[in-house]
Write a structure and sequence with these properties.
- The structure is a single chain.
- Helix content is 35%, strand content 26%.
- It is an alpha+beta fold and 593 residues long.
- The strands form four sheets. Strands 3-2-1-6-5-4 form a six-stranded antiparallel sheet, covered by helices on one side.
Length: 593
Amino acid sequence: MVEPGTDVPARAGAPFDGWAAWLHRLWRVGTDAGDVTALASLVYEALLDDPGVTVVAGARWERGRSSYVRHRGRGDTEVTTLPGCDHTEGPCAPPPLDDGPTLLLIRPDDPEMLLPCPGGSALRDAGAAAVVRCVFELGDGDRAALWVGAGREPGAPWVARTGERLRQIADVLTVSNQRILESQEHERRQAMDAFLAEASLQLAGSLDVEETLRRVARMAVPAVAEGCMVHLADFRGTLSAVAVAHMASDAQVRLREVAEDDPWLAKELLRGAERRHGLVLTGEDLEGGPFGPGAPGPAVRAMSVSPLTARNRALGTLTFLYSRDSADADRPLLTDLAGRAALAIDTSTLYEQRRRHVEQLQRHLLPPGLPDCPGLALSAAYQVADDSLDVGGDFYDAVRVGDRLAVFIGDVCGRGAEAAAFTGLARHTLRTLLENGTSPAGALARLNGALIAQRASRFVTALVAVLTPRDDGTWRVRVANAGHPLPHVARAGGEVVAVPAQGMLLGVVRQAAYRAVSVTLGPGDALVLHTDGLAEARAADGSFFEDRLPEAVARCVDADGGGADGLIGEAARFRVSGDDDTAVVIVQVEGER
């Protein structure tokens, strides 16, 4: 330490004659600055206004490492900025702090006064004989220092005045930096909230598991990190890569190879999956792996692994690769994103399982095939209006009894397990009765009695038609209806008419009576049966498919009209609303139309 000598007089003029006004100016500039380093020129200019000062320098340390060194000498017009270094010991380490700003008067040949490399001896080279230094915390783990060098050994008043001014500057810079950090954090939170909101919308936009995972990876790069990998666990707990994304297309190819088959990565993924908040690897933690120092591809400074867990089930991992040391700061975001992604994946998985179960149950409620009947051509089709819903109640079947053919179609009110149970009851009851030769009206009456006996909470509609061949090549058709949409007859000449068969819903009135009406089908004629999902399909203008049903029937019973599949296809193209399933059965007499 140098004992104070004679004072170095300050010349008259700003800012030393108006120090309070200058501090206020520094404060106002700092309120609009995006970084305190933008105030360097203003600070150095003010301090160099003292004629006893030959050089002013500053430095900053971010999380213990030097980020830059700046200095300006008397007569210089610009501040010289030198990049920092990675050294954490010796002259490059951050100087210690006292309870407040540290004020030191030191000689130029004292190594304690030297700037962090690569600034080195800049103070001595600028002709400083003594230096006053102020070290202060900027906030968020950063530290800064200011050096003011005098051309000769100063006196105590100058040292006291310079130290006080450095302390005041440090206070302004610290408060300004805190405001900047708060503003940046606020903007970052807003950006992350917007990102997470968009992520939720995107993740909710697909019920396909793999598409959901691809969306996770695509959204996260580059919004969160430069690279992303998503792994899913199978029933044995083995993790498999299902989605990979990287900002660099050439790096993405290698990243996929690493994600699919790298022992080091597999080990770290398992470690991360076992931790509630995952893990972050940096520096030495990455050595020996595909992202360590010297590894091919873009440099990786950090890797985070977040577990994908939903409803207490471990689903996999979400991994990010960073070219910056920000993974720890992003941990709340990573946890939130991983939770949302896991919930979306779990929902997609459960939906897929449910969809398969619904399909299996629906198949059991429909016949495996239609019988062959000489002289008749049969076609049937079934379409689920919304595969995110439960099993529907539409059913149909056909039974051949001798030379006759019995066809029926029906619909149980509602969806779900209860509807499926009544669907099975109705179909199998009608099939058994018709196999035993029961008439159409008798079969409906018996089914109505069975539903009443079961105290059915759902009503059922059904329509039964029995076709009997005649010697002249025509077929007599007896049709009985229980609240079902009317069937249509499409004549070979192109005319389409509804069959006026009416009757009470099944399962509502105990003593309901049903009667059959008769129609005749000639060569090329067709009988078309359908559920209400066909007629109730609705277009954007509010019109119903029922209004154009006769024309659609006429087209679809032609040789190239597609039959039952063609009729359902026309309704599907017409529909913009309507969530009821649709079943269609067409029985056509063979012959020229």
